[in-house]
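ok so for the tutorial part 2 we go from a plain amino acid sequence to predicted structure tokens. step 1 is just haveing the sequence, like this:
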Amino acid sequence: MICDLKSFNDASEQDARTWFREQVLESNVCDAWIDQILSQRPFDLAEIFLETAETAWRGGLSESQHVVMMNGHPEIGRTEATSGDPNGMEAAEQRGMSDCPPALAAQIDADKAVYRQRFGFIYMIFATGLSADELARALQERLANTREEELETATTEFWRINRKRLMDKLGFMDSVGKEAYI
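step 2 — the prediction. this is what the tokens look like for a chain of 182 residues:
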């Protein structure tokens, strides 16, 4: 079982790939990012691992690969995102949506549909610690972006989600002993 950097380094390529698909991305829609990270193993330090993962994320994927990966991710506020979530990640990440009033949930759903139609991918946001009101406000603000601006914003938000998941799953802490997600 992969639970730290050593076990990640020691895992077979297939086990590491499966771990990424099931524990980090929760999909198997695109392996390009995983391939780039696995090709750099072994990693001596968490910082090097995260730098490699971020470099591959930001510079090693095409626009279409980012879009495919985003569209394979559960949408914010979708009940099936948390009900079929064996790892509990979605529920924890989307905690702010758990007490969302029905009218606000309906508005968010309507805005997400406009967003997807406008940009061609689902609304991505690092939702940890945000309330439903904050999530709705951010969505409204981002609808004003150009596609280029929003693609950059969405891929950055998706990186933040995946970075947090990597840190959680591998037990990484920042230099003062706290989990660092930003």
